[in-house]
Write a structure and sequence with these properties.
about 325 residues; alpha/beta; Rossmann fold; Dihydrodipicolinate Reductase, domain 2; 2 domains; 8-stranded mixed β-sheet; 14 strands; binds nicotinamide-adenine-dinucleotide
Length: about 325
């Protein structure tokens, strides 16, 4: 395949970044259709990036020939699009979180596997050079403990602060940290969470916790702590990941990676900017070979699993095992 035909479901803030990169950094790629339930958004996006506008993706999937589909809708809006596309042999880029329930995610995962289509989830941090170095550094070491936090503010999208629509911050945002822990340290099998809402917010319908403190166990026997907050609405937030292994601590940030104590030449050297994920996906589609994709759908589903278990534990006040720990 030379030219790759791409369509989009969702034309919001995140999708427009993907559209821009598809146009600018992916060779011989054409955007053939863009669907958004907001007709104005669909129109505006097609004017800028090309393709035909749609407000109903069933119609779009029925009428438009495409090689690949991006699904970038709010978490609650993942219903049947991925399944219909997979059954048609269309390769899938799905934004995180891949769904809001394990049932839906497992259904989509089975459809992808059955159809044999290529899938990629927007966990772009997996592609960072800092993560590549961290993974290499960790290879063969005994991970003892993980410590991470993501403290930030409240994004502007209305659905984000409604639990039934976003799943809350851990499912929607801190999933990036959870995914990195899994990618670098292996599977998380059990979680214990404490959630609270400690401030009031002006956003209508705000019903998610704004502080979340969780501990977890990994399959390897290591233990970890994750704290997450969206209370830093005036700035000053921070996000870090520390991994204790072989009596050293690896310190990872999006633009830095180091370890103490001692010399660690594998981690040294200037880091390039975070590479775009889109060319990796589009090239995989062009070649019909998904082996370069570090974040296939099943990996996205496993990260969702951990974050949903955290939410459940936040509700029950008890330790919760992840679905994949027992299945
Ligand atoms: N990988 C990342 O770092 C990253 C960054 C930002 C957002 N995201 C993810 O991207 C997704 C979208 O986030 P966003 O910030 O663009 O939200 P957004 O609200 O700006 O855009 C979502 C769009 O989807 C549309 N939509 C909803 N239901 C639809 C349907 N059934 N059919 C067609 N369109 C529909 C909405 O009208 C809206 O335009 C979320 O899952 C979010 O977590 C990922």
């Amino acid at each position: 395949m030379s030219g790759v035909k791409v369509a989009f479901i969702g034309a919001g803030g995140n999708a427009s970044g993907h559209m821009k990169r598809v146009k600018e950094v992916c060779d011989e790629t054409e955007i053939v259709a863009i669907c958004d339930i907001d007709a104005e958004r669909a129109e505006k996006a097609t004017e800028e990036f090309g393709g035909a506008p749609y407000t109903d993706y069933h119609q779009m999937l029925d009428k438009v020939g495409m090689d690949a589909l991006y699904v970038s809708v709010p978490p609650f809006a993942h219903t049947d699009a991925e399944i219909i596309a997979a059954e048609k042999g269309i390769h899938l880029f799905v934004e995180k979180p891949v769904a809001l329930t394990m049932e839906k995610g497992l259904e989509v995962s089975a459809a992808i596997e059955k159809a044999g289509v290529i899938s990629c989830v927007g966990y772009q941090l997996r592609y960072a050079e800092s993560v590549r170095r961290a993974k290499k550094w960790l290879d063969g070491k005994t991970v003892a403990m993980v410590n991470t936090h993501r403290w930030g503010g409240v994004p502007g999208t209305a659905w984000w602060c409604v639990m039934s629509k976003s799943g809350g911050q851990i499912v929607e945002q801190t999933t990036h940290q959870v995914d990195l822990i899994r990618y670098l340290c292996g599977e998380i099998t059990e979680v214990q969470a404490n959630y609270a809402l400690r401030h009031s917010y002006e956003n209508k319908g705000f019903d998610i916790p704004d502080v979340m403190a969780t501990t977890f166990k990994l399959a390897s026997g290591a233990v970890g702590v994750l704290t997450s907050s969206c209370a830093m609405i005036n700035g000053g937030g921070k996000g870090e990941l520390e991994i204790m292994a072989d009596h050293c601590v690896l310190k990872w940030g999006t633009t830095s990676v180091s370890a103490v104590p001692g010399e660690h030449p594998d981690l040294a050297g200037e880091l390039p900017p975070l590479p775009p994920i889109d060319p990796v996906f589009i090239e995989a589609v062009r070649k019909g070979d998904g082996s370069s994709i570090l974040s296939p759908y099943l990996e996205g589903l496993k990260s969702l699993d951990v974050t949903l278990a955290m939410n459940k534990s936040g509700e029950t006040g008890k330790p919760e095992r992840t679905y994949f720990a027992d299945n």
